[in-house]
Q: What sequence folds into this?
């Protein structure tokens, strides 16, 4: 009887992973296109001005060579950090409220689905967390404007699963 229970649990676990892979393959790209379009509409002309916080290019290059689950975890952590950036920092930004709500809803939907794809035991990448903390402290808290959100746009553009 115990062996059947184990087999049942294994099959259920495999279905969850397969569902996750299917979701990424069939829905992630579409939702990413939607939120990038919304961010583009909200931002209008995104600045090319460099921020006092450098984009962690090496971190994104490093994740290109990572295992699939590590890439998914990295995406999940990045989306989580972006949602946190937008939470409560929008007082002086004049974006269309509906577009902003749609943007955040899409990110939250992606986060929810990506959460089901990875084991919760792993801690977020420290360098990624540090980047967003610096971005929030040194840029967004000081210059809450469309200019500072250009950095968020650049981060969103980097989020792809190969």
A:
């Amino acid at each position: 009887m115990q062996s059947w229970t184990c087999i049942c649990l294994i099959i259920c676990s495999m279905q969850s992973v397969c569902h996750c892979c299917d979701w990424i393959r069939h829905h992630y790209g579409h939702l990413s296109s939607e939120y990038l379009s919304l961010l583009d509409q909200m931002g209008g002309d995104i600045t090319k001005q460099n921020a006092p916080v450098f984009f962690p290019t090496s971190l994104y290059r490093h994740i290109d060579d990572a295992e699939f689950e590590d890439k998914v975890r990295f995406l999940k952590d990045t989306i989580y950090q972006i949602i946190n950036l937008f939470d409560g920092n929008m007082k002086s930004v004049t974006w269309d409220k509906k577009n902003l709500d749609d943007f955040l809803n899409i990110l939250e939907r992606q986060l929810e689905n990506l959460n089901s794809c990875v084991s919760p035991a792993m801690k977020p990448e420290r360098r990624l967390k540090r980047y967003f903390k610096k971005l929030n402290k040194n840029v967004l808290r000081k210059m809450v404007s469309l200019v500072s959100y250009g950095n968020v746009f650049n981060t969103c553009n980097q989020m792809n699963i190969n």
Q: What stands out?
A: Residues 2-158 form a domain with the Growth Hormone; Chain: A; fold (CATH 1.20.1250.10). The CA atoms of residues 46 and 150 lie 5 Å apart.
